[in-house]
């Protein structure tokens, strides 16, 4: 059975680079990319790989994290359709910083240098739009850290689960133990249990062995009765 560990902090959770592009630019970029299918559990990229491309998720889910030497996955995010990943290493021309694995059968669109360069040459707006989109992603990451500082235990738990849901919307199985989630949120196991109990009473989650079922991302953000 695969082992999971949750990171103590993460700035993942934005919908990604492609989602921030204007619709016409996004459609041209994705139309030029190459589709590739991945089986559940198949490795998409590994830490240290050269960043020769980035990926857009057309269907299925992708787990983002880091594998330790003992095979434990430190999970950063679960991404779904409409989200993208790998942009930072690709645009920054540095090695991959995280591992990515298909969380289910998935179809991804690969965007490489040729596809991006063709877009920039065909549309004078493209380069500026790309820079603005990346700047927005960085700002979102800083906003996430700042907003987390003074939140209550239950709101920090909501935020962590929301981030781990990625782009998925309904009945999301988040593969995390309660102790791992407590470590992520930065609270005691007892405090987390109380927060999860309240979320469960609101119908936002269901606790299962080794995972938490999130009824929906909108339910996580809605105050209870």
TrEMBL record:
GO cellular component: cytosol
Transmembrane region(s): none
Pfam families: cNMP_binding, HTH_Crp_2
Keyword Calcium: no
Keywords noted in UniProt: DNA-binding, Kinase, Transcription, Transcription regulation, Transferase
Top-level taxonomic group: Bacteria
Domain Cyclic nucleotide-binding: 17-137
Entry's Gene Ontology molecular function annotations: DNA binding; DNA-binding transcription factor activity; kinase activity
CDD domains linked: CAP_ED
Record-linked SUPFAM superfamilies: cAMP-binding domain-like, Winged helix' DNA-binding domain
Protein name according to UniProt: cAMP-binding domain of CRP or a regulatory subunit of cAMP-dependent protein kinases
Species the sequence originates in: Parasphingorhabdus marina DSM 22363
Lineage, top ranks: Bacteria, Pseudomonadati, Pseudomonadota, Alphaproteobacteria, Sphingomonadales
